[in-house]
Design brief:
The chain is of the alpha+beta class. It has four domains: 17-232, MFS general substrate transporter like domains (Growth Hormone, Chain: A), CATH 1.20.1250; 299-314 and 346-401 and 590-684, Growth Hormone, Chain: A, CATH 1.20.1250; 411-585, no CATH class; 688-718. It is 54% helix and 14% strand. The chain is built from 19 helices and 21 strands. Strands 13, 16, 17, 20 and 21 form a five-stranded mixed sheet that branches. It has a four-stranded mixed sheet with strand order 8-5-11-12, with no helix packed on it. Strand 9 (451-456) and strand 10 form a beta hairpin. The two termini are 60 Å apart. GO terms for molecular function: symporter activity.
């Protein structure tokens, strides 16, 4: 240890290398964070699609694995923090775990590659076990890497500032958060575009290898940038296995307190003071600091519960998946699709963070209001609650435009006359329904029984129809009434696109296709499956043998239609008028702009809560536990993810807006509790406390040394006196 540099000396050297008042090392850390976040969010943006369309997993398995991965990413910071503060130090921990991280990203990219020997004729991998195993190993390494470095990078950046640069440190945490969202914004735009490219052996094989490969390359860049700045960093040394020491100290304090629980022992100011018999007072004081902050963290997961709901990229049903129910927005030539609304959050953050730091906070300070970090976090929680109230109001508007779907105990039936003659249909409990040739009924008729009797009066035919409860179905009345009557299940809910179904009433097969989708060949008097198509203007090509025609229409977002090809269809330019269109679900009429207030409030809340929380966690942590407290902050995010699943499953509320109100109410209640806890919290300067303890120890040592010297002097004096007295006696 003799060759170690004096930290104060090193810190003064770092302080001399400044650009615009900031240590130059900060710029390498900021660029590293931007590239790393691009890598993480870029990979995550296409992860569920990779599970569903490359690994061919169902929705439930895809969503479960996705949530497990995200939860793991927020649990591993504890491991990274322990390693950094106790063993390797933050710098080496970031280096080693970034290598693990990069290997994981490369593994994901390789898992999405297959050649002609590894594919069937549809471009689907045959050796699926290899791809599944490699992708799971890759995801585990990514979770270990991204989670492990997460608490270290922010804390390591904070270490670069001297004790007199509090303002610059606060700005750093804001810029740090900007980089997180800048990387997130670019990656969520770019990576899906890369995925959509056709780079497989077959045209239907999307380019997941490229979508994972670019994030892998960015992670390598992030690692390289961080290493390049190595010589400019201040690298505080780890101070032994601090977590083990902390646990032992807490355990001894609890045990000692229990052992001396009788009244004859005097009470101590804090229960941790019972460890003074065995442990250093400085360590006990540091543990007290950490416990105070961790206690304050207890209500915080509720904020992340709401925040993580707003944009569930895995398509979980509790999120702000309003894109399934809100119409697109068009401004001139620019069309904003509902699924692009997720970019509003990072865009607003990039705007609001500098506005808050340079205008709002200074203005509040000038007004004489002491807007402390905990007050900012409280206001941030209130903002998030307001955002969900706004979301509930928008959802109420959306619900007004949605059709009434059948409950689990009901059925709904629509009629379609496939014949060339008018028919009159009698349904139980309803007035007769008159249908002209190739016409569908205007509405779905509700029934509570599974079996109903249907009579076609014009042909005097009665049939028993067995329906499935909880579904909307269409009854196809054939051209020849004695033929089989078909029941077609209709789409229940629309998520991200309009859906269409074709029914072929001709006696020859018809092939239906669009530039974006292929319905395939539809057999005579049969129907196709529903096919999702992007909203907007669509041109269908109908082909039967050598004959063809085109049918064009523009449809709104979230709509569902059934097209009937009549037996009288004549191919050619006039077929547009011959096809019957039946509207199952109307296009959404709620404007996307209604979502802007809720995104504004949730983002303002995030800026005030999350950015402030990062800086607060660092400023209130002892020097040897910076990363551990950052990990504690991130752990609240993981707990928030679990609360989403638990509360939503327990509540099982029938309406989406009531769920939003429930979570907003819970957050307000938690906010009140947090504000009370914050009121009694006393801000500290850990460095000052540590310095005072060290000074006191030095003073104690000096006093001890003086006492020892005095004892030695007294001993010498006594010895001389004794010698003299002995001499006099002999004389």
């Amino acid at each position: 240890c003799a060759d170690k540099e004096d930290p104060k000396k090193h810190k003064s050297k770092v302080k001399s290398k400044v650009v615009c008042g900031y240590p130059i090392s900060i710029f390498f850390i900021v660029v590293n964070e931007f590239c790393e976040r691009f890598s993480y969010y870029g990979m995550r943006a296409v992860l569920v699609l990779y599970f569903k369309y490359f690994l061919l997993w169902d929705d439930d398995l895809s969503t479960s694995i996705y949530h497990t991965f995200v939860a793991l990413c927020y649990l591993t910071p504890i491991l990274g923090a322990i390693v950094a503060d106790s063993w390797l130090g933050k710098f080496k921990t970031i280096i080693y775990l970034s290598i693990v991280y990069a290997i994981g990203q490369v593994a994901m990219a390789v898992s999405a590659i297959h050649d002609i020997t590894d594919s069937d004729r549809n471009g689907t991998p045959n050796n699926m076990t290899f791809h599944v195993v490699l992708s799971m190993v890759g995801l585990f390494l990514i979770a270990l890497g991204t989670g492990g470095i997460k608490p270290c990078v922010a804390a390591f950046g904070g270490d670069q500032f001297s004790e007199h640069q509090d303002k610059q440190r606060r700005t750093f945490f804001s810029v740090f958060y900007l980089c997180i969202n800048g990387g997130s914004l670019l990656s969520t735009i770019i990576t899906p575009i890369l995925r959509a490219q056709d780079c497989g052996i077959y045209s239907q094989q999307k380019c997941y290898s490229l979508a994972f490969g670019v994030p892998a390359a960015l992670m390598v860049v992030a690692l390289a940038v961080f290493i390049i700045g190595s010589g400019m960093y201040y690298k505080p040394e780890p101070q032994g296995n601090i977590m083990l020491e902390v646990c032992k100290c807490i355990g001894f304090a609890v045990k000692n307190r229990y052992r001396h629980r009788s009244k004859k022992y005097p009470k101590r100011q804090h229960w941790m003071d019972w460890a003074e018999e065995k442990y250093d007072k400085l360590l006990i004081a540091q543990i007290k600091m950490v416990l105070k902050v961790l206690f304050l963290y207890i209500p915080l997961p509720m904020f992340w519960t709401l925040f993580d709901q707003k944009m569930d990229s895995a398509g979980h049903h509790h999120g702000w998946t309003l894109c399934k129910s809100a119409d697109k927005t068009k401004h001139g030539l620019i069309v904003i699709q509902p699924d692009q609304m997720q970019t509003v959050n990072p865009i607003l953050i990039l705007t609001l963070v500098p506005i808050m730091d340079s205008i709002i906070y200074p203005l509040i300070k000038k007004c004489g209001f002491n807007f402390t970090p905990l007050k900012r976090m409280t206001v941030g929680m209130i903002m998030a609650a307001i955002a969900f109230v706004c979301a509930a109001l928008v959802q109420m508007e959306i619900d007004k435009t949605l059709p009434t779907f059948p409950s689990k105990s009901e059925n709904q039936l629509k009629l379609l006359n496939m014949g060339t003659n008018p028919v009159t249909v009698t349904l139980p409990g309803l007035d007769p329904v008159n249908l002209t040739a190739a016409q569908a009924s205007d509405e779905f008729f509700p029934f509570e029984t599974e079996n109903i009797t249907v009579s076609v009066g014009s042909f005097k035919v009665t049939k028993m129809i067995s329906m499935t409860k909880g579904l909307r179905q269409t009854l196809l009345i054939p051209l020849d009434i004695s033929d089989e009557w078909l029941l077609v299940s209709d789409t229940h809910k629309i998520k991200k696109a309009k859906t269409d179904k074709f029914i072929n009433g001709m006696d020859t097969p018809v092939n239906v296709s669009t530039p974006a989708a292929d319905f395939g060949q539809i057999e005579p008097f049969y129907y196709s499956n529903y096919t999702k198509i992007k909203n907007g203007e669509t041109t269908f090509t109908l082909q039967s043998g050598s004959q063809s025609c085109k049918y064009s229409a523009e449809f709104g977002f979230g709509s569902s239609y059934t097209y009937f090809i009549p037996s009288t269809l004549i191919f050619g330019p006039n077929c547009q008028e011959s096809i019957t269109v039946s509207e199952n679900i109307k296009p959404n009429s709620v404007h996307l702009a209604l979502q802007i207030p809720q995104y504004f409030f949730i983002t303002a809340g995030e800026v005030m809560f999350s950015v402030t929380g990062l800086e607060f966690s660092y400023s209130q942590a002892p020097s040897n536990m910076k990363a551990v407290l950052q990990a504690g902050w991130l752990f609240t995010v993981a707990i928030g993810n679990f609360i989403v699943l638990i509360v939503a499953e327990l509540a099982k509320l029938p309406k989406q807006w009531t769920e939003y109100i429930l979570f907003a109410s819970l957050l307000v209640a938690v906010c009140i509790i947090f504000s009370i806890m914050a009121y009694f919290y006393t801000y500290i300067d850990p460095a000052e406390i540590e310095a005072q303890f060290k000074k006191d120890n030095e003073d104690d040592e000096d006093d001890q040394s003086k006492l020892q010297k005095q004892e030695v002097e007294m001993t010498k004096k006594d010895s001389i006196e004794s010698h003299r007295e002995g001499k006099q006696t002999r004389m």
